[in-house]
Each structure stands twice: as C-alpha cells, then as structure tokens.
Amino acid sequence: MLELRGVVKRYGGFEAVRGLDLEVERGQIFGFLGPNGAGKTTTIRMVAGVLQPTAGRITVGGDDLASAPELAKSRIGYIPDRPYLYEKLTGAEFLRFVAGLWGKNGDGTEERAGRFLELFHLSEWKDELIESYSHGMRQKLLITSALIHQPELVVVDEPMVGLDPRSARVLKDLLRAFVDGGGTVFLSTHTLEVAEAVCDRIAIIQSGTIIAQGTMAELRRDARAGAEAGHAGLEDIFLKVTGGEEMVDVVRSLQGALSQ
Ligand SMILES: Nc1ncnc2c1ncn2[C@@H]1O[C@H](COP(=O)(O)OP(=O)(O)O)[C@@H](O)[C@H]1O
Ligand SMILES: [Mg+2]
Questions:
Q1: How much distance in Å is there from the Cα of 37 to the middle of ligand 1?
Q2: Are the CB atoms for 223 and 217 separated by under 8 Å?
Q3: Which of 176-197 are b and which e, b meaning 16 or more Cβ less than 10 Å from the residue's Cβ?
Q4: pTM of the model
Q5: In this structure, which residue's CA is closest to atom 18 in ligand 1?
Q6: 1-75+152-164+175-214 has which fold?
Q7: What is the predicted pLDDT for the residue at 238?
Q8: Spans of the chain, pLDDT less than 70
Q9: Which end of the chain has fewer CB atoms surrounding its CB within 10 Å, N or C?
Q10: What does the pLDDT look like over 132-148, one tens digit per residue?
C-alpha cells in the first residue's frame, strides 16, 4: 500500500531523514516509533504529500507521489500532529468543506460525517464555531475530516496526544475497524504503550534511520540478549536500540538497591 525507497529529507545542511526504505502492507497498522527529533513528522509529512523529499521515491497503492500526486493523495487521509482548522467555521461546515475538496458532497458523506461525530460525542457541538472547541474536540474533528473521503491509507502523526482516555480508545477501535475493512494505517508515536497496543508491525527510527523493524514478537526476539531472555518488553528494546541501555542498567541497579 505504501512504499518508500531511499527517501531523504535535508533541511539546509541538516539531514533529518537519511535514506529510508519502508514497505507497509495493506490491512495493517504500521507504527513508526522513535524519540523526539528522530524524523517521524518529517517522514509522515512527506508521505502525506505536504513536504517534498530531497531524494527518493514514495508510492501509494503503486502510484508515485511525485509524478501522480492527485491519484496518490486521493488514497490518503492525513491526520497531522498540529491541527490546522478554520476557526470561523462550525464543525459541520468544516467537514462539508473538506468533503467538497475531494468532490464528495452527497447524502452519503453527510451520513458518514454524522456517524463519526456521534462516535466522538461531537454531534451536540457540530454547529458551534471551531474556535470554541477544546484541543481534544479539534483532534476528533480532524480525525473525522481525514476519513471523510474514504481513503485507503490513513497517515497519523502522534494520534493519542491530546485525547482523553475514552477518545483514545474510540480512535484505537476506529483504526482497527478501518484495517479490518481493508484499510491501512501508518502512524507515528514516541510512546511505547501506543505502539504496543495498536500496531501490527513497528519500525524504530533514530536520527533519520530505521534501526529495527518487525512485529513485536520479532523485535522482542531480536532484542533478547543472553541473561535477559524472555524479559524484554518494548521499553527495554526501545531504550536499547535508541542507545539508552545505560539507563536501563541504572534503573535496574536502583530497583535492586531499593528492594534489598
Ligand atoms: N523545518 C525544519 N527546518 C529545520 N530542521 C527541522 C525542520 N523540521 C524538523 N527539523 C529537524 O529535523 C529533525 C526531525 O524532526 P521531526 O521530523 O519533527 O522529528 P520527530 O517527529 O520524530 O520528533 C529534528 O532534529 C528537527 O529539529
Ligand atoms: Mg513529530
């Protein structure tokens, strides 16, 4: 569904993304996990087509994002980390506007919007101006707007940030239902819990490079080293692959000292 080949992004002299190769199969939730500054947002924005790679190639459903942008982008629903919404529109107007951009304005779209608003408990506020919405409400409206044109691939940057636990659960269930129905999700997160709870496959990125990739089981197996066999949670793996193993040792010895 999504393929990246040798994707590079340079900001001036700084290389934020360093030759990424990545494949996301249809029907899975693929997690892009890494610490702050690793290059997740940069990659997500290139996949969403809002930022141009310095080098490399991105295809969506087989179509090249650079040479067939309209076709490739029509398959994508993008949920950015920093929502940009038109404050002077109501929630309902905003959804109608976004649907219109995709050439979708029928009853089916209205019905779809209604269902999402209901799901996120936003129906009551759909005719209020967006400027009066809380951060969580904006996030939920944004999620709805990204799904309104029935995309095949949903690209989400830090999906759980700013959502209350109930909405985070709704989003998780929604993404799962979306992939069960044949959709594909590519999401970024700096949180291990999110990756572990939501993703079928994970790639760990650090300093613009993928340093590990696989299912949780595969990552665990890879990370299992000697005496630690069987005890590797994703946190251990994550700390290890991102160069924080000293921290794990420090914490362990502290725990050891405290329990004596
Ligand atoms: N517009 C920009 N200009 C220069 N440097 C940037 C820009 N955007 C991001 N960066 C840098 O690129 C690196 C990757 O950033 P980003 O993709 O936002 O990482 P992440 O989302 O994983 O936290 C960081 O070092 C960041 O400071
Ligand atoms: Mg980011």
A1: 5
A2: no
A3: eebbeeebbbbbbbbbbebbbe
A4: 0.86
A5: 41
A6: Rossmann fold (3.40.50)
A7: 66
A8: 223-260
A9: C
A10: 998 888 888 998 999 99
SS3 at position 132: helix
* Structure-block tokens of residue 203: 């790639």
* Beta-sheet pairing, 153-157 with 2-11: unpaired
- Break the chain into its structural domains and give their ranges: 1-75+152-164+175-214, 80-150, 216-260
> What pLDDT score does 221 carry?
74
Looking at this protein, which amino acid is placed at residue 233?
A: G
Q: What is the DSSP string of 134-146?
A: -HHHHHHHHHHHH
> How confident is the model at residue 128, as a pLDDT?
97
Which ligand 1 atom is nearest residue 45's CA? 17
Instruction: Output the pLDDT for position 163.
Output: 78
8 Å CB contact between 55 and 6 = yes
Residues with CB under 6 A from ligand 1: 11, 14, 16, 34, 36-42
Amino acid making up residue 138: R
Q: What pLDDT sits at residue 161?
A: 80
The pLDDT of residue 84 is 83
For the CA of 36, the nearest atom of ligand 1: 23
pLDDT of residue 133: 94
Helix (H, G, I), strand (E, B) or coil at 87: coil
Q: At what angle do helices 107-119 and 135-147 cross, to 10 degrees?
A: 150
Exposed e or buried b per residue across 139-153, where buried means at least 16 C-beta atoms within 10 angstroms of its C-beta: bbbbbbbbbbbebbb
